Amino acid sequence: MEFLSEFPTMGNQELRDLKKAIDRGFREFSRAYGEALETFFEPILYFLVWFEKLLQNSPWPLVIAVIAVLAWLGARNWLVVGGTVASFLVIGYLGMWQDTMATLAIISVATLICIVVGIPVGIAMARSDRVQGLVTPLLDVMQTIPSFVYLIPVVMLLGIGKVPGLIAVCIYAIPPIVRLTNLGIRLVDREVLEAADAFGASYPQKLFGVQIPLALPNIFAGVNQTIMMSLAMVVIASMIGVQGLGVPVLRAISNQYLALGLMNGLAIVVLAIIFDRISQGFGKNIQKHRWDGH
Amino acid sequence: MGTNPGVKVQIRSLYKIFGPDAAAMTEHVEAGISKEDLLDKHAHVLGLRNINLDVAAHQVQVIMGLSGSGKSTLIRHINRLIEPTAGEVIVDGEDILAMTPLELRQFRRSKASMVFQGFALLPHRTVADNVAYGLSVQGIDKAEREERGKRWIDRVGLTGYEGYYTTHLSGGMRQRVGLARALATDAEILLMDEPFSALDPLIRTDMQDILLGLQTELHKTIIFITHDLDEALRIGNSIAILRDGEAVQVGTPQDIIMRPADGYVAEFIKDINRGRVIQVASIMDAEKADGGPKVDAETVLDDALQLMIGSGSDIATVTRNGEPAGSVRLESIATALAKPD
Ligand SMILES: Nc1ncnc2c1ncn2[C@@H]1O[C@H](COP(=O)(O)OP(=O)(O)OP(=O)(O)O)[C@@H](O)[C@H]1O
Ligand SMILES: [Mg+2]
User: What is the value of pTM for the model shown?
Assistant: First the structure.
């Protein structure tokens, strides 16, 4: 009867040994490769720091002007541009300019990395069912595993700082762009692809001349979601040393500063809305200018 | 039509079986298993069985058959969009199946182009860019591409639409783009998989006129799929009829109508307007008549009938190139007009 009421565990001592062994193994791994990894990520770190400084040190009217131009290019909608400018003015007026710029910097760099890594992975998945079968479960894990869990090995490897924060954001935010690139390419009309084949197109000619252009609306939907998800990681990333709007939120939580938390939280929301409108507008515009629906 | 100009495309003992273990199935298929049994007992789909077909150069070879009979599968073997399970495809003496991927791409770029039932145009490119697609794949520079493309855009009657996106065009216009795209590479072989089936009847007739007009000038070798017998008779120099992946009859339109190989073919032709299709040549006697009106051998029965009734004669002299070649009687015309059952 005892067997049924008490779950048969592997024994405390063995369990402790197992965990210790895993920890030791990983610690050895990080001792051996941590430094190499850090060097590997150094260019990204330099870029991120440079970009953050650029945003923070440029005159604020110039920054707002550039953002307004980008908003116009993306959304082609004066309302979006006006709303964007107004939001940034309010954010600045409420003293959150520096933090917002830091967040903007990390979101931009993270999105860039996700695009540069994610689109090729999506392309590879679309080309081969084998690759798709391998990557899909990985993406599922990345999306469902609580972010705190993968923060542990990242911090063990790289310590506290911008780079581990960036990696954590990317792990969380990259799945949609991979998935939607893959999906977009797979959804391209079979007959159109066959036509490309029939006219003797090579694989790169098909990829860049037919598949990617026709998948662009989906790819942009992926970029949009990636941006949204990296914004959602801002607070968690600030726990491991990323500057930005997440830091005051954390401080507000531990000190019960309601106003501080609310303001910075709302600033994140506003950023999310702006990014969403701009990137969605961009996706819609390419679709509209080139063809209707389809 | 024309002299005997040599064979352009040869298809030899071609088999296509769809399924994971197709090669192992050839045995059953060669032994004559039916398409249904192959599916039920072995879970493989019979695409084509032992197709042998010679397509003459500069002629229009029509391929007909009901849905699922293997027409699309057959035409896609000619540019090897589909790999056969067994058999040979030879174009201009060259074995398509022996080609390396590079040679095959070269072949598709320069030798055989294709027109699709659903048009298969690139929705993100303009009419001009679609027409020039084959040329851009070949790496031809923009200026030459535009110039060569323009010629074909004008030729199919799309002048002025160069800058339009194809989704803004009607079906008929889209297929003109498809046709111009196929012609722009100057390929000698044109593969057309039900190119006009998606179009309204009136527009379909327009497109047939355009194609026939172009053909009198260009003399391409055209392989044309349709399930519309009127279209087949109008366009084809030769017609092949497929059923369940087998060629049940190959012949001239007159052959098919006068001597259907089996009930399946007879079923196909039963609703045809025989008076407008059958030519005097198909039913004439070699014995020359004295007197009666003269009719050319290629006259259709309706016209011959009118001529004979008008002249009050029950016999007419059949001529070829103006020379008497035989005779035809009212009686035999009446017999030929009557539907066989
Ligand atoms: N990729 C494939 N896998 C399995 N079966 C296929 C495949 N392609 C075609 N078939 C089968 O092969 C047979 C011939 O198909 P095909 O498309 O050549 O017919 P079709 O004569 O062109 O018909 P339709 O008039 O409908 O276009 C059909 O039974 C079809 O289901
Ligand atoms: Mg078909």
Answer: 0.86
